[in-house]
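Checked the freezer inventory, then went back to the computational side. Two predictions to log before the end of the day. The first one is the construct we discussed on Monday; recording sequence and tokens without edits.
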Amino acid sequence: MTVMEPVNLFADEWDGGRDRPGWKWRRLDVGGRLGAELLGASLYELAPGEKTFPYHWHHAEEEWLLVLAGRPTLRSPEGEQELRPGDAVAFRRGPEGAHLVRNDTAEPARLLILSSEAEVEVAEYPDSGKVGVFSKHRRLLVREDAGVDYFDGED
């Protein structure tokens, strides 16, 4: 791509989504469409009564949430708060950046999530006791209590 083509955040254009009950949304890979390398950006349209992702926090990546439309509810370590269009929130690395976004209203919410791009990311899901390891080549989710000894299977 030699010409910078703009991506319109208010168009009704999507790359895919999730249709699991409780977690329904549509997504546009804004960063990918722009050819970004160091910053990720995804636009989500969150259906009424649905959530984006399970409550989690990141070890390597920082995320920002920008509300473009609707009034989503943010769950964080400080509790819950309703957000409104124009609100921006940063999710720092570590447990203090834990978050879950849900839409308790009757109207869709449109969210832009920006993130730093780490080669390898580890995310923790405290409600379900899972740990996720993500890279370009691998996605692995395990229960925290499923650990093995460092030398397990080596002899």
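The second is the one RB wanted added to the comparison set:
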Amino acid sequence: MRLTLLRHGKAVERDEWTGDDADRPLTRDGIVHAHETMIALASLVVPVMEATEIWTSPWRRARHTAELAASVWELPLREVPWLAGDHTPVDQWPAPPATGHIFVGHEPELSRLLLRLCGFTETGLTVELRKAGVAILDGEPVPGGMELYALIPPKIARKLGR
């Protein structure tokens, strides 16, 4: 099984936003770069993602990124509350489904999930998904049951997709 983790695109900075963090939008550049990245990834890795659905955080910036991905990759979209930033600790997330999915969410939760599923939680290893970056995992969606198949920063995706 393949599980793809997609971090939301560049959002307005926290110190520049006076509203609720959940409502913080993507910047204009964040929208453009995320869209370009999704288009580039469509030819590069979407076939190997084996995804049947996109699950997204309900927070505005993740939801917008997921909508861009869903339109480019022609996949259905579902909002799941446990993908919201600071909502549910990763070790309390439900097990990913047995079919390929794309999770759109936030840091550091997505990196923590990656480390947990790949069995690296006790090693001191760190990994960070860049904004609009993608990690593809392969294996059984249980702690320690997956391997990192690909880690693709958005700049690399856009360059390779040209």
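For RB: Residues 2-100+107-160 form a domain with the Rossmann fold fold (CATH 3.40.50.1240). The chain has one domain: 2-100+107-160. Let me know if you want it refolded.
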